[in-house]
């Protein structure tokens, strides 16, 4: 019956003496673990009903040609039944190697990868730099810290509107660029500048989280290590390479993974910054939304197929990432 | 830190007199004056960048005309709170406030209530299926909006829950519940196991231990989980703008967009509303910010 605090036993599974019959084992497991199962039951039920069931239904939809024209709908008092049909893997084939696959999927896919990589890199580098600065004995560092957290404190949808005012043609950013005789790009209209603007805004929003997390990590590094390194004659760079970075490893690997997942799925910034005015600056998530809800007729099947593809990409990536961490004997902090 | 934005002045005088008896060069943690100035310079510029968009939004919200954001200089002479009074009196501001609060608080309460025992179970017990369960919790964190949106829309319209607060709460629970469970596990991990052992020795069941000993200790963790799910629901855009149809049921994230339609762009009102929304949330955020990160990276920062 003692299930509480048996963290160690989870690891040595198997290797026990002859296994008892299945019924016996079931009874045993029930007696031993029913507390655990009872306690996790609420979440399991919620996940089953709110996540698994819709997910399975979504996956089924991807094998059909469902659009808003042939789905079940109610117009006034008339209820029209769904008339969409099962078409197998056609949606996936069309998305991945159909006639315009490059324009629709692969170009957005490439941009999504570039977007994720650049954003997370910027988040991490700027966040780490600021965290290192804030970790010194410096007058007013609490004050700096409070201000630097601000972008995180303000809801994203508010800040994006603020940025839209600033980036508008004739807004403050272009006025300032004009004043110093620099060219003033069309931030919200030209594809390249739209992408730049999106990265800028997302970097602005994402740095505080990285900074605060890494600052937490820095503060948990034992100062004795630095003293020892200094005794051994390590210079600042060597201390950073050999004490700071290894000390941050588990926090870093966690926040980078979270950052990648969040940026890859970042919906609000691009959606609110451009609406549907920027077909080429859409990342896969916002593109999938456009297909499913931002056009007429709504293409439910393809939108769902994009969703499934996106999720698969992330799951594969996360598995590889975790395996890679495990090989380097690192652990996620979560 | 290669981007130094402030020119470092030549070192002026020696170390401040009167403190350390013998000057033996800067010790660790005490930077030279130039170094400190550089740090201040970088941090100052970064703070300015962090602050500016918000300050600018507040400034623009004081301009009475809807195109003032293009001639910000003009606002200086005619600053007024008219936008605020107009927003509070003549727009559905309070409807939006109500919807946002109903949806966010509903999500928070359900999320935390459902997730609490689970967080405890996965923190303390190892049961068959544990690893798979944790993996499922992690995977649900990476669901892109697109993956559940279509099926959720179908299901909710069958249940007549489109344009309904409860429907939106259900949708948000699909992310809030695993999120809270995950966060709470991290927090429960930081509570010493000896407390559980003591409880068990005194004859409490696991439920008793959880309810009587751990829950009271975990209040800060519960608060963090609650705050996170509140903020997530508060700021969500995609589902809210698709599943809420009548403009009195919009949440702020959607309502704010409605100021800019094809016909008319009332950007001054939009700015004022944005400020009204942002200020209480940010204020609250500052109250709890110290606890936020420990919630997410609890295991890692313990060292």
TrEMBL record, chain A:
The residues forming the signal peptide are none
* Residue ranges annotated for the ABC transmembrane type-1 domain, each copy included: 109-321
Q: Electron transport as a keyword?
A: no
Compartment(s) of residence:
Cell membrane
Transmembrane region(s):
34-56, 109-134, 146-166, 192-215, 255-274, 303-321
Q: Which CDD domains match?
A: TM_PBP2 (cd06261)
Q: Which InterPro entries did the record assign?
A: MetI-like, MetI-like_sf, UgpAE/MalFG_permease
Q: Where is this region: Disordered?
A: 1-20
Specify one Pfam family.
BPD_transp_1
Q: How does it sit in the membrane?
A: Multi-pass membrane protein
Q: Spell out the family assignment given in the record's similarity comment.
A: Belongs to the binding-protein-dependent transport system permease family.
User: In its UniProt entry, what is this protein called?
Assistant: Sugar ABC transporter permease
TrEMBL record, chain B:
> What is this protein's record name?
ABC transporter permease subunit
Supply the source organism's classification.
Bacteria, Bacillati, Actinomycetota, Actinomycetes, Kitasatosporales
Region entry Disordered, spans: 1-31
Query: Keywords of this protein's UniProt record, alphabetized?
Result: Cell membrane, Membrane, Sugar transport, Transmembrane, Transmembrane helix, Transport
Classification via Gene3D superfamilies: MetI-like
* Record membrane topology: Multi-pass membrane protein
Any idea where the ABC transmembrane type-1 domain is?
97-288
- Cell membrane: present as a keyword of the record? yes
The record's annotation in InterPro entries points to:
BP-dep_ABC_trans_perm (IPR050901), MetI-like (IPR000515), MetI-like_sf (IPR035906)
Which source organism? Streptomyces ortus
Localization, per the record, is: Cell membrane
The residue ranges flagged as biased composition, category Low complexity, are 15-24
Would you identify the family this protein belongs to, as annotated? Belongs to the binding-protein-dependent transport system permease family. MalFG subfamily.
Q: Which domain of life is it from?
A: Bacteria
- A Pfam family of the record is BPD_transp_1
């Amino acid at each position: 019956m003692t299930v509480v605090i048996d963290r160690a036993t989870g690891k040595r599974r198997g290797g026990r003496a002859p296994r008892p019959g299945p019924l016996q084992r079931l009874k045993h497991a029930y007696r031993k673990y029913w507390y655990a199962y009872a306690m996790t039951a609420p979440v399991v039920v919620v996940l089953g009903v709110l996540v698994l069931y819709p997910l399975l239904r979504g996956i089924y939809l991807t094998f059909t040609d469902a659009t808003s024209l042939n789905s079940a709908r109610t117009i006034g008092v008339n209820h029209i039944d769904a008339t969409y049909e099962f078409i197998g893997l056609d949606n996936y084939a069309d998305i991945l190697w159909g006639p315009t696959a490059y324009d629709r999927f692969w170009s957005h896919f490439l941009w999504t990868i570039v977007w994720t990589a650049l954003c997370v890199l910027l988040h991490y580098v700027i966040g780490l730099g600021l965290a290192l600065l804030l970790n010194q004995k410096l007058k007013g560092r609490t004050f700096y810290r409070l201000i630097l957290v601000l972008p995180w404190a303000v809801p994203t949808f508010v800040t994006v509107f603020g940025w839209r005012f600033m980036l508008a043609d004739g807004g403050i950013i272009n006025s300032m660029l004009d004043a110093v005789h620099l060219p003033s790009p069309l931030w919200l209209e030209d594809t390249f500048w739209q992408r730049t603007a999106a990265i800028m805004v997302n970097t602005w929003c994402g740095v505080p989280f990285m900074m605060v997390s890494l600052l937490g990590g820095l503060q948990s590094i034992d100062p004795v290590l630095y003293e020892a390194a200094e005794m051994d004659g390590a210079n600042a760079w060597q201390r950073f390479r050999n004490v700071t970075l290894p000390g941050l490893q588990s926090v870093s690997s966690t926040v980078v993974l979270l950052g990648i997942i969040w940026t890859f799925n970042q919906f609000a910034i691009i959606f609110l910054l451009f609406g549907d005015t920027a077909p080429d600056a859409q990342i896969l998530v916002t593109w999938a939304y456009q297909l499913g809800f931002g056009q007429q007729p709504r293409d439910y099947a393809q939108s769902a197929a994009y969703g499934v593809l996106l999720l698969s990409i992330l799951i594969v990536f996360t598995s590889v990432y975790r395996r890679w961490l495990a090989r380097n004997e690192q652990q996620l902090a979560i | 830190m290669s981007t130094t934005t402030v020119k470092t002045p030549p070192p002026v005088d020696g170390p401040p007199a009167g403190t350390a008896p013998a000057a033996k060069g800067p010790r660790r943690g005490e930077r030279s004056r130039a170094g400190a100035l550089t740090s201040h310079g970088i941090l100052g510029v970064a703070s300015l960048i962090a602050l500016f968009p918000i300050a600018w939004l507040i400034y623009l919200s004081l301009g009475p005309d809807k195109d003032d954001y293009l001639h910000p200089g003009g606002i200086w002479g005619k600053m007024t709170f008219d936008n605020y009074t107009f927003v509070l009196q003549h727009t559905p501001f309070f409807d939006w406030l109500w919807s946002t609060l109903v949806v966010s608080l509903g999500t928070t309460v359900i999320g935390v209530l459902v997730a609490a025992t689970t967080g405890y179970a996965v923190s303390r017990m190892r049961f068959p299926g544990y690893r798979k369960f944790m993996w499922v919790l992690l995977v649900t964190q990476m669901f892109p909006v697109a993956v559940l949106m279509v099926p959720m829309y179908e299901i909710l319209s069958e249940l007549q829950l489109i344009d309904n607060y409860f429907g939106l709460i259900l949708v948000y629970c699909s992310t809030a519940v695993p999120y809270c469970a995950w966060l709470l596990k991290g927090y429960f991990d930081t509570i010493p196991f000896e407390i559980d052992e003591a409880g068990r020795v005194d004859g409490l069941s696991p439920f008793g231990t959880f309810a009587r000993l751990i829950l009271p200790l975990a209040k800060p963790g519960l608060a963090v989980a609650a705050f996170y799910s509140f903020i997530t629901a508060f700021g969500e855009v995609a589902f809210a703008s698709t599943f809420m149809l009548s403009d009195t049921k919009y949440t702020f994230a959607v309502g704010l967009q409605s100021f800019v339609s094809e016909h008319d762009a009332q950007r001054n009102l939009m700015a004022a509303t944005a400020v009204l929304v942002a200020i209480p949330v940010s204020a609250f955020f500052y109250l709890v910010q110290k606890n936020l990160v420990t919630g997410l990276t609890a295991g890692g920062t313990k060292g």
